[in-house]
Amino acid sequence: MDLDALEGVRETLIEACDIGAVSIDAGAVERVATNGLFLLLSAAESARAHAVSFAIHNPSSVLLAAIDRLGLAERFKGLI
């Protein structure tokens, strides 16, 4: 998820949260911007506030490395 994709991902996450439980398959992630990680955290918090489940499944090694590199592992705990 790079900066060019963020707006589309944001809109998709909003629509998904409106429908119900959100489950993201992140196995194909090859790039991720810092803003993309914070977008996922924000979406998860919004889902939680609306009593909607939010989970990230099958995270790629790229996604996990970015989360770790930025010190966000604790914030993603329970989402992955």
TrEMBL record:
Pfam families on file: STAS_2
- Please name the SUPFAM superfamilies in this protein's record: SpoIIaa-like
Q: Which InterPro entries match?
A: MlaB-like_STAS (IPR058548), STAS_dom (IPR002645), STAS_dom_sf (IPR036513)
Q: Which PROSITE patterns match?
A: STAS
| Positions of the STAS domain | 1-80
Query: Origin, by domain of life?
Result: Bacteria
Protein name (record)? STAS domain-containing protein
